[in-house]
Amino acid sequence: MTLTQSSPGILLICALGTSPSPALAAEPSWLLEEVVVTARKREENMQALAQSVSSIDALALENAIAKDLRDLASYSPNLIIDDSSSGPGSPASISLRGVSMQDVEKSFEPAIGVALDGMFIGTNTGQMLQLIDIERVEILRGPQGTLFGRNSIGGVIHAIRSQPSGELGGKLRLRVGDFRRGEVDGLLNFAINERLAVKLTASHRRQEGGYFDNQLTGAQDGAFHYQSLAANLLYNLGQRQELEYTFQREWDDSEAPPLVNMSQPGSLLCDTLKQCAQLPDQPQTGDRRKNNQDGSNNAFIDTDSHLLEWRLELNEHYRLDYLFGLRDSDESSELDFDASPIDFFRTLRPQQYRQSSHELRLNYAAGDINLTGGLYHWHSEYHIQQTTHVNAAPTNKSARQQTDSWAVFFEGDYTLNDKLTATLGARYTHEDKSSGHQFPGVIDNIDQPVQQQWQNVSPKLALRYRFDAERMAYITLASGFRSGGFNGRPASISAALQPYNPETNRNLEVGLKSDWLGRRLRVNAAYFYMQYEDKQEEINRPAPSAVGQETVVANVATATISGLELELTALPLPGLMLRTNLGLLDANYDEFLADTNGDGNITDNSSLLLRRAPELTLALNVTYEWQWRAGTAWVQGNMHYLDKHETAFFNTVNTRNPSMSLFNASLNYELTGLRLSLFGRNLSDEEGWQHAFDVAGLFAFAAPRAPRTLGVEISKTFE
User: Fold this and answer.
1) Quick one: which of 38, 64, 466, 668 has the most CB atoms within 10 Å?
2) What single-letter DSSP state applies at residue 285?
C-alpha cells in the first residue's frame, strides 16, 4: 500500500504528534517549551487557556518555508485555507470548524477573522497574508465574539510580526523555484539612539510563468508579482510607556488564478453555446491544468497600512493599550469567469476600500482577578464600479457602502481556589450600515442610500479545573456574530433595498490540555457543539429584470456543527520532533428554506452539505535534526489529509473535491547563520479545486490547485 493510499488512522497511530521546529538537539533539557500566546490580548501560557488555540512560531514558519497563509492550514485541525480565485491579492476562502465564506464581494463580511498585529482585516481581499517577518501565528478556533468582536464567528487567525530589536543585524533570504519563480526578502534592525529602534523590511516575489497552459493563446497563465516595503519604529517614552508605529506599502499585480469551464447540461453556456465540460470531473480542456480562456485574468491591488500602538504600564496591576489601524487599498480586476474560448461572461471591477479602527484596552491583574476590558470603534467604506459583459453586451453597475461600529467589552478570570478558575466576559456591539447602488434602468439610489442598524451582545462563560501543574480540563460557552448588511451585487430594486440580519453562533466546548512523560508529550483535545442561528446564505440566481445574475444574501437557515479535535506534540528522541492533529466534523443544516433559482418558489434545501466542511482532516509534521560536520542538518516532512468536501453552494459533482493527501518536504543545512534548503510542495501532485462556483444556471467554473513545485532557498542571518 503506497503512502498516498494509507489510511489516515494508520498514519495517526504511527505518529505521536509533531512539533513545528527542529532546534531541540541544542536544548539540554530536551523538553517541550512553554508556548506564550496573546489569544486574549494579554500574554498567557497556551496550556492554561480554556479555549482551543494552535500556535506556530517563527522557526516553524521558516522550516515550513511558508510563503503565505495557505501554507499554515495543516497546523490546525478542521482548517482549510484556499484562494477564492475571483479577484486580486488572492482573496482568502477560509473554513474553520465548517464555518466559512467565499464570496469576493466586500459587502459580504468574513466569517473567519484575520488580524495582523492586532489590526482586523475587514475583507477577505487582503486576508491571504504574505508571511514576511512573522514572529508567530495564533489560530483561535470557535467564536471569538468577546475580545475580537464582529466577524470572528468561526475563529481568528492572528499573525504577529517581530518588534525592532534595537541591535544592528538583519536577514536576507533568496528563493527560486519552478515556473521561473524568484523571491528576495530582506530585514534590517538598527537603533537611532537609546530610545528609538528601527526595523526595515522589503520583499520582491515574482513568478514569470503561470502553472496553467492556455490552449487558446499558447501562454502560461497565472503569473505572480508581489512587492512590499515596511518600516517599524519603536520609541521608549520612559516612565514605563512606549510607542510603536508600523507602515507597510504593498503592490500586487499578480494575475488572478486561471479558471476552467465546468459547465454541465442544463446551463446556458453548455446547452445553447455548446461550451461544456467533457465529464463531470473534467473541464472543457480535459485537463485541470490546461485552460482555454479567451482573455487573461488581469488584476492588481495596492495597499497602504498604518498601525500605531501606545502601551503604558500604570503600575504593577494596571496596563493601558491604545491601538489605531488604518488600511487603504485601490484595486481592479478583469476576469473571464466563463473560462471558455468565447467571450461570454467577463467583468471589470475597479474599486477602492478604506478601513480604520481604534481600540483602547485596560488590563488589570491583582490577587484572584485578571481582567481585560475596553472600547472599540470601526469604520469602513468602499466604492465599486463594475462593467459586466454577457455575450459581449456590457452593463454597468456601481455601489457604495459604509459601516460604522462601536463596542464595549470585557473578559475576566476569577480564581475560586487553587484548582478552579471561572471566566466571565461579554461584548456589546452597535453597528450602522448604509448602501447605495446605481444600475441604469433598474436601480438608482447611490446618492440616497438605504440604512440599517443592529445591536448584538456576545457573552462568554468558562470554568477550568487544574488537576496538577501539567493537566487541566475546561468547559466554555461562547458566542459570536457575523454582521448583517446589504447585497453588494444586486440586479433588482428589491435585492438592493432589503437588508439581511446578522447571523449568530453559540459554541459549547469541553477540553483537556496536558503534558506527559516529563513534558516530552503534549496532548490537547476538545469536543465542540455549535448552533448556528439566522445563518446567512449567498444565493446566486438569474437577474429578474436584466441579463446576467445577482447574488442575494438572506437569513434562511439554521445549522448544527459538532466535532472532535486532537493535537499531539511529542519528542520521542533527541533531534526528532513529531506533531499531529486530527479533526472530526459533523456539519448539517437543520433548516434551509429559500428560493434558490429566482422562480418564486420556496424549497427545502436542508439536505445540502456545508461548503468546505470535510468530515475528517489529519495533519502530520515530522522533523529530524542532526549535527553534520560544523553545522546542523535536518529534514522535514508534512502531510495534510482532507476528506472529500463540497466547494460550491449547490453541491454539484463538478465542483466537489475528492479526498486528498498533500505532501510537502524539505532538506536543510545551516552553518554560522548561512542556511540552504531544498523543498517541494504538493509532492503527490493532487488536483483538487481551490474554488468552484455555479453561476445561476448560466455556467460553472473552477480554479485548480497548484501542481507539484520544487525550489531552493538560501538565507543569511547577520548579527
Assistant:
1) 64
2) T
